[in-house]
Amino acid sequence: MTDLSTIERTKQDIIEEFAFFDDWIQRYEYIIEMGRNLRDLPDGLKDDAHLVPGCQSRVWLHAWRRDGHVHFAADSDATIVRGLIALLLRVYSDRTPREIIDTSAEFFEILELGSHLSGSRANGLQAMVRRIHSYAGVCLDDGASLDMPAEMAAQ
Q1: Domains of the chain
Q2: Which 3 state secondary structure label does DSSP give 69?
Q3: How many Cβ atoms sit within 10 Å of the Cβ of residue 68?
């Protein structure tokens, strides 16, 4: 199985998980639970250089490359956003740069998140995807260096 089909399988798994719920309150609760289970970023990594512009809440996103794959760690000061981050990391983290760039976030439309999130939250979701794709673009250059933050390696 190729990695891209693995990404597609991950997206399909998420779609099936959301289809299990009868209404949006249950889906929101599920997103919030995913956010609660997201690993916290150490405080030292919550810096202005890693804030994602365009998000209503504060979102910090770190990326590093290891063994040809891009890995992400992120956090937010809003619980619902932490859940959205958890969804994004399931799809995009630990993938090659090309796989990340070639994978759009259209599955969020299938989940109808855009129509159930506030306008500013939906815009923030798109801003996070743009930042993820931007990091992947940097990693397409074999000479580019993105190292794991020391604080993450220590955990």
Answers
A1: 3-153 (3.90.1010.10)
A2: strand
A3: 11
How many Å apart are CA 137 and CA 11, to the nearest integer?
21
Query: Is 139 marked active-site?
Result: no
* Alpha-carbon span 45 to 31, nearest angstrom: 23
Does this model's pTM top 0.85? My answer is yes
> pLDDT digits over 18-75, tens only?
999 988 899 999 999 999 999 999 999 999 999 999 888 999 999 998 888 999 999 9
Alpha helices in 51-118 (DSSP H): 79-92, 97-101, 107-110, 113-116
Q: Which of 31, 34, 38, 55 is catalytic?
A: 55
